[in-house]
Amino acid sequence: MPLREVDPAEFRQLCGHFATGVVVLTAQDAEGRPAGMTANSFASVSLSPPLMSVNVDHSADMHAVMKTADRFAINILRSDQEAISRRFAGNLSRRFEGIGYRRDESGFILLDGVLATIACESHLSFEAGDHTIFIGRIVGGGVAHGRPLLYYRGGYVTAGLP
User: Fold this and answer.
1) How much is the pLDDT for 161?
2) Residue 138 pairs with which residues in a beta bridge?
3) pLDDT attached to residue 154
4) 23, 82 contact by CB (below 8 A)
5) Could you tell me the mean pLDDT of each successive run of 10 residues in the chain, 162 residues long?
6) β-sheet bridge partners, residue 26
7) Is 140 exposed, middle or buried (0-12, 13-18, 19+ CB in 10 A)?
8) What is the Cα 59 distance to its own chain's centre?
């Protein structure tokens, strides 16, 4: 007897019971402008070589940017940066408006005041259902003090961490 496939609502409910960190994925678009989006589907892949993955929906504005980007950054948000997460989940044209960021000497777009940054060179991508999985080779990064912003069961969580 074949196993049944879960529907999208059930799948979302099941995965919602796993707390994830919240990040803003940033890269430069084809015209050299900063682009970014909120994501929570990223993970370490390999220690040697150092690789990480981030999943981007085919319908997301950031998908086209990531398909052509030669580098991208993961900006891990602090517990007090929910507004930044919401901003980068919204209107593409206003995402960087009023948000502090810089381009480092290698061209990575890094948000100010985040908990950590992970700088990646684009390494590999492949299609997986309605998303593309982008694999980046980690070439740098930095960390700061603070607590992470988490997403759990459809909402942001900031309490209960040491």
Assistant:
1) 53
2) 120
3) 86
4) no
5) 82 81 95 94 94 96 96 97 93 84 96 98 96 97 94 81 52
6) 36, 73
7) middle
8) 15
Q: Please give the pLDDT value at position 160.
A: 61
Residue 1: both structure tokens together: 């007897």
Separation of alpha carbons 84 and 75, rounded Å: 11
* Whole-structure pTM value: 0.91
Using H for helix, E for strand and C for coil, what is the string for the chain? CCCCCCCHHHHHHHHCCCCEECEEEEEECCCCCEEEEEECCEEEEECCCCEEEEEEECCCHHHHHHHHCCEEEEEECECCCHHHHHHHCCCHHHCCCCCCEEECCCCCEEECCCCEEEEEEEEEEEEECCEEEEEEEEEEEEECCCCECEEECCEEECCCCC
User: How confident is the model at residue 59, as a pLDDT?
Assistant: 93
Please, what are the domains in the chain? Answer: 8-154 (2.30.110.10)
Residue 108 has φ and ψ, to the nearest 5°, of -75, 140
Q: What is the Cα–Cα distance from 132 to 149, expressed in whole angstroms?
A: 24
Question: What's the half-sphere exposure (Cβ side, CA atoms, 13 Å) at 37?
Answer: 18
